[in-house]
Fold SDR family NAD(P)-dependent oxidoreductase.
Amino acid sequence: MNNNIKQGFKRVWFITGATRGFGALIAKSAIEDGNAVVATGRDANRISEQLGESPAVLAIALDVTDEAQARAAVEAAVERFGRIDVLVNNAGFGLLAAVEESSDADVRRIYETNVFGLLNVTRAVLPVMRGQRSGHVINTSSIVGYQAAPGVGVYSSTKFAVEGITEALHAELKPLGIHATLIEPGFFRTDFLDASSLLVGEEIIDDYQETAGKLRRLASEINHRQPGDPAKLAAALVTLVDARTPPLRLPLGTDTLKAIAEKNAYVTTETATWEALSASTDFPV
C-alpha cells in the first residue's frame, strides 16, 4: 500500500517555485484540502518556514534548470509518498524590455527557467504518472501567453512555448489517463513585478517609449495594486484538480478573459480579410 493511502492523503502534489507567491499559496491550499505536497524551490528552508513541519509536507531544494536535481526531487517525492498525482510547473520569472532591448544573456536566462526548466521537471515526473496511468500536469502560462504585449515580448514567447508544449502534452497524455492544463493568470497582486521576480532590461531605446516604455512605467504604478486575488487563484487550482474533465486552458482573471476575447476577434477578422490570398497558395485541385 502506498504511503499516501496509509496516511490518508487525497492526492500528492509536486509544486515548483513554492518558496513564495503563487507556489506557496497553491501549496497551502492543497494542504488545507487534505493533500500531501512536495514543495520545491531554491530555498528549502524558507519553504519549511512558510508551510511548517508536517507529515503532509516535503520541502526540497530544486533549481529547475538542473535536470539531475529535478530527477532527484521526483525520486525523493516517490520515496516519501509513493506517487505523484499533480504537477504544478510554477517556477519562472519575467523580463520587462522591448524585444530589441532584451540582451542575449537575459533571453537565455529566462528560457532556461521558463521553458527548459519546465521541461526538465515534466520529463522527470511523467514516468511516474505513466506508471500510475493517472495524473494531472498543470503548466503556468500567462495572459501574455495568449496575447503578447509590447514590453514583454521575450517573456511572452516563453509562455507561448509553454502553451505549445502543453497543447501537445494534452493530446499525448490523454490516452494514458493523464490530464494537462494551462493556467493563464492575468495581473494578480503578488510580488511578480518586484525585482525578485522580474528582470528589467538595462538598455532603454527612446523609440520604444510609447510602446514598451508604457508598460515599464505601468508596472511600477500597478505593483501590489493588481486586480487579481492570488489566494482565490490558489483555491481555483484545487477546484480544477477535482474536475472530472479538466480543460486544456483555464484563464484566471477578468483581464485574461478580455484579452482572449479581443485576440480571438482580431484573428477572426484578419483571417477573413486575407482569406482569398491565404487560400490561393494551394495546388489546383
Observations:
- The CA atoms of residues 200 and 213 lie 11 Å apart.
- DSSP finds ten helices and nine strands in the chain.
